[in-house]
């Protein structure tokens, strides 16, 4: 079962080749099966799929039965192909676009408004009810980078309120289906800064795993270290070790839930090699799993996305494997079945101490990367403020 930490799990974030995530309404089971068959050929064991909030819950008191039926069919198809599915549900933020719930009124924060929270719990309940009996259902991710929703008007939230929101919704999912792998899919900001609506200690306690999203461009690592720099090639490894340091137990699973690379950031002929190295180096931290972003390119006939979003796939829109896809496939093969290593509280690994009053941003990460460059395998350890 996927939530057992006896091996490293490899997967991809599924972006349909036809119609992006608007395909929840413009449904083609044949196209979905073709996409998932291509994904299975990579040698992965799971996919992360993304609901679009206004599609799945067009009204505060209504969850779309059509969208739920399509979700159930997708999970069934994936299961038939040997893939488990993590369903990311409260997606107001996806691929640089805020998909505001149709029913959200001005000033009603999705994090604090009682009626909004009731609606969110209802949607999570409906998704779990629709999929819980299927062998391919892995669990729920309550939302894709939900901290990003706090940037938009009306969604004001304190860190205390954000922590309470994530804790409550994950507890709700675990009450409904305690055997599954439920998480909250935050991006890098809560780990690398102190201006997020979620705190590192809480993220190290709630859900079945701590989640990191490792993007070398958005974190500033690529600009700071260069395309071949240790800090770029080992960023996912650092984030995994950082999240593990905040875990409430020494062997707390850490999921690298998103890692990706764009031809707009590195030379196209260098991208496959860099992508493969990123996966190999991430695996050295023994995460629960590594899930590449993303499976397929976006059809350029669809407007409104930032230009880089169109080319992030391992496959093009005709299900042809791209050079980057081949490199990631080979990295998956090298690391599939790698035994996950439990991290004891005391070990012989060199320690990198993180005082409680220090923000573990890239300034702090510089020492981690320097140790890696010397051939060391640092263990980040929290210590009292100095």
From TrEMBL:
UniProtKB keywords: Hydrolase
InterPro entries, per the entry: GH
One Gene Ontology molecular-function label: hydrolase activity
SUPFAM superfamilies according to UniProt: (Trans)glycosidases
Lineage: superkingdom: Bacteria
Protein name: Glycosyl hydrolase
Natural source organism: Ancrocorticia populi
């Amino acid at each position: 079962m996927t939530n057992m930490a006896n091996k490293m799990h490899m997967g991809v974030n599924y972006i349909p080749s036809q119609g992006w995530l608007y395909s929840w309404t413009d449904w083609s089971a044949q196209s979905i099966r073709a996409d998932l068959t291509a994904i299975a050929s990579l040698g992965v064991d799971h996919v992360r799929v993304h609901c679009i909030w206004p599609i799945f819950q067009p009204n505060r008191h209504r969850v779309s039965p059509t969208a739920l039926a399509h979700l159930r069919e997708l999970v069934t198809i994936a299961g038939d192909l040997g893939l488990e599915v993590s369903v990311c549900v409260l997606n107001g933020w996806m691929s640089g676009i805020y998909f505001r719930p149709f029913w959200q009124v001005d000033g009603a924060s999705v994090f604090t408004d009682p009626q909004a929270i009731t609606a969110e719990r209802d949607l999570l309940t409906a998704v779990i009810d629709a999929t819980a009996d299927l062998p391919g259902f892995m669990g729920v991710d309550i939302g894709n980078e939900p901290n990003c929703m706090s940037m938009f008007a009306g969604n004001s939230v304190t860190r205390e309120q954000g922590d309470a929101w994530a804790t409550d919704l994950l507890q709700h999912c675990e009450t409904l289906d305690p055997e599954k792998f439920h998480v909250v899919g935050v991006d890098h900001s809560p780990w690398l800064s102190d201006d997020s609506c979620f705190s590192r200690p809480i993220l190290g306690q709630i859900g079945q795993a701590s989640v990191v999203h490792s993007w070398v461009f958005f974190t500033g690592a690529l600009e700071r270290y260069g395309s071949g720099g240790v800090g770029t090639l080992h960023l996912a490894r650092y984030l995994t070790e950082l999240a593990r340091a905040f875990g409430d137990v020494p062997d707390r699973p850490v999921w690298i839930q998103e890692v990706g690379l764009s031809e707009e950031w590195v030379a196209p002929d260098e991208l496959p090699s860099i992508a493969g190295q990123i996966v190999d180096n991430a695996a050295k931290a023994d995460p629960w799993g590594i899930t590449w972003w993303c499976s397929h390119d976006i059809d350029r006939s669809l407007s409104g996305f930032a230009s880089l979003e169109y080319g992030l796939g391992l496959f093009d829109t005709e299900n042809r494997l791209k050079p980057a896809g081949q490199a990631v496939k080979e990295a998956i093969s090298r690391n599939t079945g790698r035994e996950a290593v439990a991290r004891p509280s005391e070990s012989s690994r060199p320690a990198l101490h993180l005082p409680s009053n220090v923000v573990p941003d890239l300034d702090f990460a510089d020492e981690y990367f320097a140790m890696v460059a010397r051939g060391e395998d640092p263990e980040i350890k929290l210590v009292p403020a100095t």
